[in-house]
Design a protein that fits this description.
With 309 residues, this protein is α+β, with helices and mostly antiparallel strands. It is 28% helix and 25% strand. The strands form five sheets. Strands 1-2-6-7-10-15-16-17 form an eight-stranded antiparallel β-sheet. Strand 16 and strand 17 (291-294) form a beta hairpin. The radius of gyration is 19 Å and the shape is globular.
Length: 309
């Protein structure tokens, strides 16, 4: 990848910042770290001192929240609306009941009681109200903004770096990649591969474009001996059927790309219609490691199977 780069562990994944102007790297990393700290302090589900955790008892009656938390909730509700509820930010209770109640690196196989099962006429996300910065969440719901917060952080960090520094930048947080400012000559070259044994592809992102990968192979744990992953079907309150090992989507923002890639995992076989409707380049890898490409995704390397839209 052109330019100079820095990597460090964060949120049980790896943060990576790449700049086109080498002497701007140190400051670009500082900006990214600040954004990550701000996002984590606002909405972490695993920190008792996060704003979301501290305000949780007050949310049923409505409470004024910070601009950062309001922005994170707004993006999450927008993702839910875009996907007709497939990406639902109100699954905190369901995730906790399945055992994902702490950082994934700390989750161990434990016995749990009855899994929370949703029985609601109105989907959870439609019952969350954000009026300006006043947030109201019904008492039977718990927000989990993880599906969009990481992508939002990548977008925000890249935008702030490009606004402050005379450099092009790529910010990668695990599978969520955002770019801003000018790209290197020939664009940003990115390797797309979920796990080392999975089929790989190399793509080029133009300046200002983003890429996101959602996976059923990472952030896994066991609950009473049963294998789980973190992407839930909100209609069932259970991990989505792993029709796809991974789904990768490119869009103008990382939040949009991540929203669609996550919805692809939730929708399973119906994902192809979603991607076609959105008109976005996408690459899906099924459980047998067969590759499906749509929306103008570039031709795959030899040894993978590409399917035209």
């Amino acid at each position: 990848m052109p330019g100079d780069a820095a990597d460090w562990p964060v949120w049980s994944t790896t943060a990576r910042v790449v700049v086109t102007e080498v002497h701007q790297l140190e400051r670009a990393v500082e900006i990214t770290r600040l954004v990550l700290d701000q996002v984590d302090a606002a909405c972490s589900r695993f920190r008792p001192d996060s704003e979301l955790a501290r305000l949780s008892p007050e949310l049923p009656n409505g409470v004024e929240v910070s601009g950062m938390l309001a922005a994170l909730v707004r993006e999450a509700l927008r993702a839910a609306e875009l996907t007709d509820g497939d990406v639902d930010p109100t699954l905190g209770n369901e995730l906790a009941s399945l055992g994902y109640d702490r950082d994934i690196a700390l989750v161990t196989d434990r016995a749990f009681g009855t899994t929370v099962t949703r029985v609601a006429i109105v989907p959870g996300w439609r019952r969350v109200v954000l009026d300006g910065r006043r947030l109201t969440v019904p008492p039977d719901l718990a927000l989990d903004l993880g599906a969009t917060a990481k992508a939002f952080a990548a977008d925000l960090a890249a935008a702030r770096i490009a606004a402050e520094l005379p450099t092009g930048v790529l910010v990668s947080l695990g599978g969520d990649i955002a770019t801003a400012g000018p790209s290197p000559d020939g664009g940003w070259v990115v390797l797309v591969q979920d796990l080392p044994a999975d089929p790989r592809a190399t793509v080029t992102l133009a300046a200002g474009f983003a890429l996101a990968t959602s996976s059923t192979q990472k952030r896994q744990w066991t609950r009473s001996g049963e294998r789980m992953h973190h992407i839930l079907d909100p209609r069932l309150g259970r991990p989505a059927e792993p029709v796809w090992r991974s789904a990768t989507v490119s869009a103008r923002s990382c939040v949009e790309a991540n929203t669609v890639s996550t919805a692809c995992i939730v929708r399973g076989h119906r994902a192809l219609d979603l991607v076609r409707d959105r008109g976005l380049p996408a690459r899906l890898v099924d459980r047998e490691a067969r590759v499906v490409t749509l929306g103008g995704w570039p031709a795959e390397e030899p040894g993978t199977e590409g399917v035209a839209p």
